[in-house]
Amino acid sequence: MKRKLILNVLLFITFILSFLIMENTINLASASSHSDFGKEQADKARSINTDITEDLLKIESEQNSNGKNDNFEFKISLNQNEGMEIKLEYRANALLPKISSEFKIQFDSLIEFNDTNKDGKYDIYNDQIIQQISLQGIHVINQSIIEQGNISLYTFQLEDTSKIFQPTVIISSDALISQNMVILPNQLKIDLNFVNFPFISENGLLALQISIENTYNIVEQEITEDESQNVSTNEEGIKSVQADYPSYFTWTNDISVDGKQNEMKSSIFYPDEDEFTEYQLFFAYPKGNSINHDPKIGVENTFFPSSGTDLDRNSIPIWIWIVLITGLVSTVLFILYMSVPEFRQYLLNRYLPMHTAPHRLTMEEVLENEIRMNLITLILERPGIHYSELLREIDTSPSNLAWHLDILETYKIIQKQRLGKFLIFYPYLDKNPFANLDPTIAKSKTTLEILKIIGENPGIYQGKIAKRLDLNRKSVQYHLDKLEELKLIRREKLGRKVLLYQN
Q1: Would you list the domain boundaries of the chain?
Q2: pLDDT tens for residues 275-331?
Q3: What's the CATH fold of domain 317-427?
Q4: In the 8-state DSSP scheme, what is residue 45?
Q5: CA torsion, points 353, 355, 360, 362, in degrees to nearest 10?
Q6: What separation, in Å, do the N-terminal and C-terminal C-alpha atoms of the chain show?
Q7: Model confidence over 377-421: pLDDT tens digits?
Q8: Helix/strand/coil for 142
Q9: How far, in Å, are 68, 232, 248 from residue 45 at the CA level?
Q10: Which of 24, 359, 399, 473 is the one with CA 20 to 30 A from 67?
Q11: C-alpha count within 13 angstroms, C-beta hemisphere, residue 109
């Protein structure tokens, strides 16, 4: 009876708070617009220098005002036999030779493929290549400088020898709004254009192959810095794991195909000794004669827009508020049944297969971090909380918040869902597959590791597991038999090979 009374009181408070939050957000909306963006940043313009030689387009952007003196350097390879390489180097102090952040990508080839999985993505292991055209002889065909007030916009149009690949690179001396698109001075925008690709198959799709070489580990990010600052939506990306100045390559999933809006799908493959030594990223596009897509490369924590840069929020659909309020209501139900210490103990005792390679942390190390524990507490207490609320509650930068959220999601501590322009977060509560197992099996690190490998690599065979764990085949066979007996895995025969899958 007492619990029911508490529940009713908390539900009432939740709805009152939700109403106040909604009213406050709508009032804030009238105070922000894009129109002031360029004007407010006008005193922060950067100097840009360019140099074009036979084999290199070099763009330097330097700021020496407001107490900052940093330098961006973009080097784009020209007239090469293999691909177009873009190398970014950032120096937080332009007077020193030390590189604070670096990133290198290369646009390698165009691939027409048969989408075997029917998922719209390019899969290097399963999809059939119909034809592959290497990008060669990239050269500058036009360059221009457009002055808007005291802001300079530099554009360089390029094309390869086949004239199918026609990218344009764009850099601005300051923040600029152009055709409802925000161009920031800490980024190089790459406007990718594919013209009249000679498709062979009626069902063929087009993929752009991109190699990524980086000194640091690469992690995928669904919340980009531009999204966190409300200057872009529907973005994905990758970034290097560098403490102060992570460099990134991001893209929108919205593209233009023959003048109509469409969707691009990406896939990334991590380095593998047997297959390739660099990260491989593929953009998959629907069939068309003219395809346009505009990713960008830049460095986080190097530009801080004013409050006037927030996206206009004066048309938030009521259904989003209903979902958010429902999330807040579900908070009450959740905290009555599980506290933060209980959730922590649950995380330490469970086993779930997960791919954690970019972070290389133990669960204990994940939970030792103060920011991450504060995030877990907030999400436990307020399931359905959205990204902007977390940013207001946690004393950290947008990029650092995104980094910690990525760790929590990777380790299946939280899960997220996109609702319109909102990203909302919930605790990850899944059943522990080892809850009812014999303790001798549950405590076997080898058994758990083998199950984890199968979960991360569906269709792997016994020999590869033995090689990866440096075990003999009989030992692996013993653990596989136990897992199959417990109905946690299954074996499927393909020719002479027996492939392994989690149930």
Answers
A1: 38-309, 317-427, 439-502
A2: 445 788 999 999 999 999 989 999 988 875 434 434 343 444 544 555 555 555 555
A3: Arc Repressor Mutant, subunit A (1.10.10)
A4: P
A5: -20
A6: 42
A7: 888 877 778 777 888 888 777 778 888 888 888 888 888 876 555
A8: strand
A9: 12, 21, 22
A10: 399
A11: 11
